[in-house]
Structure formats: C-alpha cells, structure tokens
Amino acid sequence: MPLYAVIMAVRNKLFDIKIFKAKKVKAKVISVGNLTMGGSGKTPLVIYLLNMIKENGIIPGVLSRGYGRKTKGYKLVSLHGEILTKVDECGDEIYHTVLECSCPAAVSEDRVKGAEKLIDSAGINVLVLDDAFQHRWIDRDIDLLLFEQRFLLKRSLMSKFLFPSGILREPFKAVERADAVIINRKFSDLAEIPSEYSRYFNGKNVFTAFYKVIGFVDLLRKIKYSAAEFSGQKSLVVSGIANPFSFINVLNKSNVDTTNRIIFRDHKNYDMEEIQRIRKTFYASNTHSVITTEKDAVKLLNFSRELDDIDIFYLKIEISFDDEVGFKNFVLNKLN
Fold this sequence. Notes:
By secondary structure, the protein is α/β, with parallel strands linked by helices. It contains eleven helices and 14 strands.
C-alpha cells in the first residue's frame, strides 16, 4: 500500500475514534470539498453558496488555504467589500471568489487559526471552507462533497486509484462523512452513475448540478457579450485550470473555433515569458481574440498594459442545480 494511503487511513481513524478532535468555531461552518485532485467545480459552488447565504440576510465569509499563492501564513483577502491583496498573494480561486461575492475572505495554511481570526475580524455568521473535506480539524455543520460526473463515468481504473498512482485523495468509502453529495455534470447531459460508485451514495442527500453559460466578458473593458455573438469566431484558447475539457467543450458547442490552444498547468502563475508566448501565438495564428477562463482572467489582468492591443475575453459561467429549491432548503435548514 502506498505511504500516502497509509497516512490518510491512520489520520482518518484517529479522527473517527476522537483522538484527533475537530474544533468548534464561533460561526456555522460549511465545508466544500472533493475526493479528487481538482477540476470538480468547487469555486463555482463556493460562490453560489456565498451569494445564496447573503440573499437570506446572513453574513458569510470564506476561508481557503490559498493554493498557488506566493505568500505564507494568515492573510486577510477582503473585508467590508474592499479587496486587500493581489491575486498572487492569495491565490486565483479566492481572488475570483471575492470579486464575485464581495464578502469577507482570508487564506491560511492553519485553517483553525485562520477561521478564528476571520470570524473575529469580520463578524460573520457562516464560514464557508473552500477545499476542506480532507481538513478535519474544524468542526462543520454541513459537509458537501463534490464529484464531476465525467469522472464517475470514466472506465479507467487508474483514475480511481489513490494518489500518487491515481487522482483520488481518499478511498470512496470516505463518502460516509459527507452530509450531501453533489454530482456536477457541468455542460453534459444528466447520466446514470455506475452502481460500483452510486452504491456509496445510498442514504445520502444527492444533488445534481450543471453550469450555465452567462456569456463572454471583455477582460479590460468589462463589456458583456452573449455566447451567440462569438459563434464562428476563430479564437486562441488560453487555459490554466485542472481540467480544461469542459471549458473547451462548451466553446465548441458555442461554435467557437478552438483549434489554436495554449494549455498551462493548473493554477498557472503567469509571467512575461507566458505573456509573450500568448502574444506571439495570437498574431501567428491570425485569430480574432483570446478566450480564457475566469480564474485565468484575474491573473492576466496583471498584464493589462502588455495585452492592451489584444481582445481578450473570459467565459462567464455559474453553477446551478436541477433541484434548486431542494438544495437551497437543505442548506438553509441545516444552518437553522
């Protein structure tokens, strides 16, 4: 058995038998997480939850580890609607989140101390923990476990192995800890999950989610366009996310020519070398525009001067639920 699997098994057992104890904090806590290494849609779900909570008159905040940031320790990202950091100081996901939600936010490797500091400084009622299913040191009121539908439909055994052989962070039996399972079909049709995996969901609240295309947004000018306005356009696709399949797939469905692509690793921190590569490829391929993701857009904004002669747009999406009322009632009832 790989060392990683042994460590995870022992650690979880120590929590299960209460030798390791989760700490309660002075706010209701919602954890959003997954069992795989990225790409399931945690950030859109966090944004959805924060906006839904605000709409119900509750003050929410969000805490993240800040993956990919160039800083360490606790850092307050946003307070009273003001963003206090740069994207490379906190990470692209949390920066994107506060742009969309305008709510208190912080990053910290020590989630317990980070939660306590954020709650005290912002006076929040509900704390959303981003990517925290495996982080069991904070007691939570709702544990949401997210799966990408495409992952559950894959027949490749390698994708179901634990890291580092596969992309699983924990065995499937860890689903037992979840209060609800969310299957994100993204831009695909709803499909029946194979019984070898769906059996783990028995007795659980299971919700299915999908992405809605809102349109395209001009990176520099913030002008919004409908997806139909980009039909037939030859674009350079730039992506630095964990799983670009769905992103490229929806562009193709919108009849955008995605032949020309630059695919970077997840959480790519852009520098002048990558910016020059984008510029060179854009002009060499004779494309009309650059199309990127929302997470990449917040980092490319740092190079607005170098890119001001190129039309750059990002695809704006939102997560939604097939049973919207059911999901909202489930969350709000748990919080109350």
